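job 3f2a | input accepted
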Amino acid sequence: MADGLREKHSLEDLLAVMARLRDPESGCPWDVKQSFATIAPYTIEEAYEVADAIAREDFDGLKDELGDLLLQVVYHAQMASEESRFQFADVVDAIARKMIRRHPHVFEDPSRREEFMSTDLWDRIKTEEKAERGGHETSASILGEVPVGLPALTRAVKLQKRMAKVGFDWPSLEPVLAKVDEELDELKAAIVEDGAESKTRVAEEFGDLLFVMANVARHLGVDPEAALRAANAKVVRRFQSIEKALAEEGRKPEDATLEEMDHLWDEAKKAERKG
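job 3f2a | predicted structure (275 res):
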C-alpha cells in the first residue's frame, strides 16, 4: 500500500513500541539493558541532529530527527514508568502546565504582555515554582542551576547572564574586548613557558580566552554555538572547493602545496562573497 494511503501510527503506537522493546522477556536485549545514564548521551546527540537539520534547512531530515528526539523522551519516560517514578502522560501534563503558568499574558491576562516583554516576569515565575517545590534541594549559588552538561560555550554565556543580573558585568563591549587582549597575552606567555606545568597552564589560559570570547558574543547578541557552527560549515564549503578544483586537475589535496591550497581557498572565499 502506498505511504499516502497507509494509516499513520499514533503517539500511543510509539509508546507501545517502546514498551515492547523494553519487555524483559520478549523485547530487544540491547534496549532492555539500557539505563537513564546510558541513554542520556543519545538524547544529547539527537538534539544536535535536530539543530543540524535546521541549520542545513533540511526539513525532510528535520521530520526524522524530531522523531528521533521524541523517541528519547519516550525512552526515558518508559524507564521511569518501569521504576514507578512517572508516566509519559505525567511528562506531557507537567510541560503543558508549565507553559500555561509561565505565559500569564497569553492564558490569563493579555494586559500583562508588556510586563512579560520588558521585565523579568519569566524568571520570577520560575523562582516561585522552585519555592513551591518543597523537598527539592537547590544550590545557594545563583550559578548552581546552570546545567553542567550544556555545551561549554552555551554554559559560559548562561553563567555570564546569571552574574550580569546581580551587577557582575562590564557596562559595555570596550572593556570586554580589552579583556580579550589581556587573556591572549597571558596565553602567549604560557605558550613560551618551560616546565612540567606548561601544558596545564596553556590549557587553562586557552579556556580563559574562550570564556571571554563567549562574553564578547553575549555583549554582541551573538549565539557563540551558532556562530561556530556557521564557521565550521564555511570551512567545509571552502575546503570542498579546494578538493573539487584539485580533482579537476587529477590531483588530491595531499598532492598540492600549502601555497596552492591557500590560493584556492582565497578563490573560494572571493566566489562566496560575489554570491
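job 3f2a | The mean pLDDT is 91.
job 3f2a | closed
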